[in-house]
Amino acid sequence: MANPLIVGEIQRRLHNLKLDGVFDTGTLEQWIEDNRWSPYPQMQSTERPDKVVSALLHGRVAILADGSPFALLAPAVLMSFFQTSDDYSQRWISGTAIRFIRVLALALSIFSPSLYIAFTMYNPELIPLNILLQLAATREGIPLPIVFEAIFMEFMVELVREAGNRMPQQMGQSYTIVGGLVLGDIAVQAGIVSPMMVVVVGLTALGAFAIPNYEAAFVTRMIRFPMLIVTSVFGIVGTVVFTLLLFAHLSTLKSFGVPYLTPFAQAAYQDWLDTFIKSPEPLTAIQPATYFSVRGWLRRRQYKHDPKRP
């Protein structure tokens, strides 16, 4: 059911590989992706057979590597990283509610620390007076500026998360949760960080956990650090400019000729029924129209490499 142009482009890139061997699909992804300098993944990795079958029925291509338990799904768009196979086994109301929660978690994970710094450092007039007085009281005696306080707490959360990943599976999840709570409580009692900063960083960490795809969640966590620095220098204007530049990058990114912001980049309104909302199953198109409207990019690409190709 996949677009023959996309299948041909994937085959061409695989045939042009100059490797002695491929031992994992993660290495293969880095060789055949469109933009190697983009932090966003342009192929989706999964080890669930039901997700691979669903992707094949929706017009996507699956790539398997011998010896690797993961499959690569292409093309990958931004919305595909926030959808799970469990969404389609539930009724449309519960599936839509879960997707809205994930989108809200994405916004909290990216913007919570930056907006907190912008409002407290540059625009305190936007905060109600009672809350502003409470924030000022909680920050009394804190030696670190707000921006260094946020970076320190974010770094500690990432350190605890990475340490939990390297521990045995039975201990890793418990260590991540308990370690974060204990470190946050000790930091507040020691007067290093304010209680409100612990709340903001906790919301940020929970938002990242709610993103189902590991690669998308990791990129979301890493984007927070440059956004924190830009916000600390330019305030809310820096947050807005950074967000616009991020959307500009996403709008130019492609995955095997398919725009990364599909289906919003095209006028395929029928595919919008399976994005932020999960419409009833009979209304969802089996073959998304956006995967079959790659315009002329792949045709020009194939003509460039094979002029005799019709």
TrEMBL record:
GO terms for biological process: spore germination. It holds the Pfam family GerA. It comes from the Bacteria. Keywords: Membrane, Transmembrane, Transmembrane helix. InterPro entries: Spore_Ger (IPR004995), UPF0353/GerABKA_families (IPR050768). PANTHER family: LEUCINE ZIPPER PROTEIN 4, SPORE GERMINATION PROTEIN. The chain crosses the membrane at residues 103-122, 181-211, 223-247. This is Spore germination protein KA. Belongs to the GerABKA family. GO terms for cellular component: membrane.
